[in-house]
Specification:
- By secondary structure, the protein is of the alpha+beta class.
- The chain is built from 13 helices and 17 strands.
- The strands form 5 sheets. It has an 8-stranded mixed beta sheet with strand order 1-10-11-12-15-9-8-4.
- A hairpin with a 4-residue loop joins strand 11 and strand 12.
- Helix 2 crosses helix 3, helix 3 packs antiparallel against helix 5 and helix 6 packs across helix 13.
- It is elongated.
- The N and C termini lie far apart (about 60 Å).
- The structure holds one RNA strand.
Length: about 425
RNA sequence: GGAGAGAUGGCUGAGUGGUCGAAAGCGCUCCCCUGCUAAGGGAGUAUACGUUAAUAGCGUAUCGAGGGUUCGAAUCCCUCUCUCUCCGCCA
C-alpha cells in the first residue's frame, strides 16, 4: 500500500513512477475520490460532534433533574442524517482502500527501465560454467539414473507438477536445507524461525499476495479461510504485524525453512519437465525488518548472504537487477540470483531478493519507535537463501559425471555423512 | 469434541448506561529536593485520521473484532475471534 500522503502531495510523480512498470495510475481520479472522502469525513465528524454535545447536555440536564424533553426533540433527526452521511463515507472509503490495495509499490530510482525480463540488467557474474567432455544430461535424467527422482510416482498420488525424491537424492535436498540454515544462522546473523504453513487472508494481504494474486495460491476447502503459503515470506514477515518495535530491536533477521505451494496458474507449458516449476518445493527464506534508512544497504547484504550459499557450493551464477516491468507488485527493487544450469545452457532464477520499503509494513502496520519519536513504519526485505529444489537441480546438473554419478561439493559433505559422491545403483 | 472463565492504556488493575480516553498503582520521561546507584514532592506519559506552518491547539474514532438497542455504550443484546482452566482425544 502506498502512502496516501505521498499520493495527495504529488500524484503526478507517483503516476510517472508507476508508468515505468506499465501500471496506469489515474491521478485525477484519485484526487477526485480523495476529495470526496475528505468532505464526507468532515461532514460526518461535525455531525458526530453535534450528537456528542447534545448527549452530554441531556446527561447534565437529567442529572440535575431538569426536563430533557426539549433537548431530546432537538436531536430527533440527527441520527438519520448521521447514518446517511456515514454510509456514504464508508462506501467512498472502501472504494478508495480497495483501489489503493491494488496499486503496486513505487520503484526505487535505480531500477533499470524495461518492459519485461529481457530488459533485466546483469550486475555481476561469479564462477565459470564447467566444460563437459561427455554428453551431459539434464537433472531429470541424472536424478532418475540415480534412482532418486520419480515424477510418475508423484503423478499417481498428486497429479502433474509434483515429485517424489528417494534415497540419496532425498537426503541431498535435506542436507541442502540444513546447510543453508546453518550458514545463515551461524555466519550471517539470522534467527531461525519455524512458522505455520497455512495462513489467513489478512497475512497474505499484508505481504501483498492478496487481493490481486489469489489465483496463484492454494486455498483449503474448509470452514476457515486458509491458504497454503506460497513462500515463507508470508508468515515470517507477518511476525511483526501490528507491532511497535523499539529501534534497538532492529534490524531483525529471520531465516525459515518451509515448503512452498504455488498453483502456477497461467504457466501451463512452461518448465513442465523436471523440478524447476512445481506445485510444492522447499525453500530457505531470509527476511529482514530494518529501519527505513538502512533498507537499501540491507538489500545488498541480504543478496550477498544468498550468494554466499552458491559460492560455498561452487555453483556459477549471476546477479541481475530486475527491470521496471519485471519487478514484483510489492517490491521497490529486486535482484535475482540466476544459477548456471548446464542442462538448459542457461542461467535460471534460484533466488529473488527484494526491498519492499514500507509497502508491506503499511499493510501490516509494522512500526518501530526511535527514542521518544512517534512510531514510524519499518522497511521489510526478503530473499530466497535459496530455493532448495532448484539448488538440487543445479547440483545434479553441474556436478554430474560421465558414469552417471554426482559429486558432492566440499562444503556440503559434512551434511551427507561425509559422502563425496552419489552413485547410481548397480544394475 | 464437552464444560466453564476471561479479553480495558507499556504492565497490574478499577469501572454495569451520562462531562470515561477511561480511577489507582507500577514502569518510563522531565523538573524540584537530597553530600553520594535510597527516600520524598511536582508535571507529563496511547494510536490513527481530519484541521493546521506545527509531532501547538481543536475535532472524530478506538476499552479483543463486527453488528444491534439508545439522545448517549468500556458498561445492555447478538455474532465471531483469541486466551486460560477442567474433561475427552491425540503427535
Amino acid at each position: 500500500m502506498l502512502d496516501p500522503k505521498v499520493l495527495r502531495a504529488d500524484p503526478a510523480a507517483v503516476a510517472a513512477n508507476l508508468a515505468r512498470r506499465g501500471f496506469e495510475f489515474d491521478a485525477a481520479r484519485f484526487s477526485a475520490v480523495d476529495a470526496e472522502r475528505k468532505s464526507l469525513q468532515v461532514e460526518v465528524e461535525a455531525l458526530r460532534k453535534q450528537r456528542n454535545d447534545s448527549a452530554k447536555q441531556i446527561g447534565i440536564a437529567k442529572s440535575r433533574g431538569d426536563d430533557a424533553a426539549p433537548l431530546l426533540a432537538a436531536v430527533k433527526d440527527l441520527g438519520e442524517s448521521l447514518d446517511a452521511a456515514s454510509e456514504r463515507l464508508d462506501a467512498v472509503q472502501i472504494e478508495l482502500d480497495d483501489w489503493l490495495a491494488g496499486i503496486p509499490n513505487i520503484l526505487a530510482a535505480d531500477v533499470p527501465d524495461g518492459a519485461d525480463e529481457a530488459a533485466n540488467v546483469e550486475i555481476r557474474r561469479w564462477g565459470a560454467p564447467r566444460q563437459f567432455d561427455f554428453a551431459l544430461a539434464d537433472h531429470v535424467d541424472v536424478g532418475e539414473r540415480l534412482g532418486g527422482l520419480h515424477f510418475d510416482a508423484a503423478a499417481k498420488i498428486s497429479g502433474a507438477r509434483f515429485a517424489v525424491l528417494r534415497g540419496a537424492v532425498a537426503r541431498l535436498q535435506r542436507a541442502l536445507v540444513q546447510f543453508m540454515l546453518d550458514m545463515h544462522t551461524g555466519e550471517h546473523g539470522y534467527e531461525e524461525v519455524y512458522v505455520p504453513f497455512l495462513v489467513e487472508p489478512h497475512a497474505l494481504h499484508g505481504t501483498g499476495q492478496l487481493p490481486k494474486f489469489a489465483a496463484d495460491l492454494f486455498r483449503t476447502d474448509g470452514d476457515r479461510e486458509l491458504y497454503l503459503i506460497p513462500t515463507a515470506e508470508v508468515p515470517v514477515t507477518n511476525l511483526v504485524r501490528d507491532a511497535i518495535l523499539s529501534s534497538e530491536d532492529l534490524p531483525l533477521r529471520f531465516v525459515a525453512h518451509t515448503p512452498c505451494f504455488r498453483s502456477e496458474a497461467g504457466s501451463y507449458g512452461r518448465d513442465t519437465r523436471g523440478l524447476i516449476r512445481q506445485h510444492q518445493f522447499e525453500k530457505v527464506e531470509l527476511v529482514q525488518i530494518v529501519a527505513p534508512d538502512h533498507s537499501s544497504d540491507a538489500l545488498e547484504a541480504l543478496t550477498g548472504h544468498a550468494e554466499a550459499v552458491l559460492q560455498r557450493l561452487e555453483l556459477p551464477y549471476r546477479v541481475v537487477a530486475l527491470a521496471s516491468g519485471d519487478v514484483g507488485f510489492s517490491a521497490a527493487k529486486t535482484y535475482d540470483l540466476e544459477v548456471w544450469l548446464p542442462g538448459q545452457a542457461a542461467y535460471r532464477e534460484i533466488s529473488s531478493c527484494s526491498n519492499f520499503t514500507d509497502f508491506q509494513a503499511r499493510r501490516m502496520q509494522a512500526r518501530y519507535r526511535e527514542g521518544g519519536d512517534k512510531p514510524a513504519l519499518v522497511h521489510t526485505l526478503n530473499g530466497s537463501g535459496l530455493a532448495a529444489g532448484r539448488t538440487l537441480v543445479a547440483l545434479l546438473e553441474n556436478y554430474q559425471q560421465a558414469d552417471g554419478s554426482v559429486v558432492i561439493p566440499d562444503g556440503l559433505r559434512d551434511y551427507v555423512g561425509g559422502a563425496s559422491v552419489i552413485r547410481p545403483p548397480v544394475e
